[in-house]
Fold:
Amino acid sequence: MKEMPKPLDGRFTPAVLTYAGVLIALNIVLSKFVSIPIGPTLRLSVSQVPLILAGIWLGPVVGGLCGLAGDLIGCLLSGYAPNPFITATAVIMGVVPALFTPFIRGSAAGNGARERLLRIGRIMLVLALCMLIGSQGSTTLGLSLLYGSPFKALWLSRLPQSVLLLVVNSILVELLLSRIRLPGRR
Structure:
């Protein structure tokens, strides 16, 4: 199989489109069919992991497009109208980790316990930024406007969910990054 191009070269080769399609499908399945709803404004789901990986593996443009496509197709399948604030969060989750890929990978390229803990810590920092801007910011604003709930109360009620998902998503992303190698990637 041919090697994939570098993520920032702007080419949408069949290989890049194939990987993107699989990651979009994973995002949709995890968000719509393998999630735990807790009321109208809370849902436990690891559906952002494929978007984060799309950004890291395929670059910020493809990662953002995966988030956009996954959210819009998921809305279509669920019968929801797209909420631009929630869609923005999906795009953020594909773009921001891609911008911090060198930081996430760091200088500790080994798979020892110390290197893995450092990598999880770096991933956690990047995802904390994403969740602060996306889940706690943009999504909470979108839900606040949709349901007419006070932003501050909604923000506080969603905080434990975000902290839990921050830890779980960081561990899953590190686990998958250390175990899966795409052709042409380090």
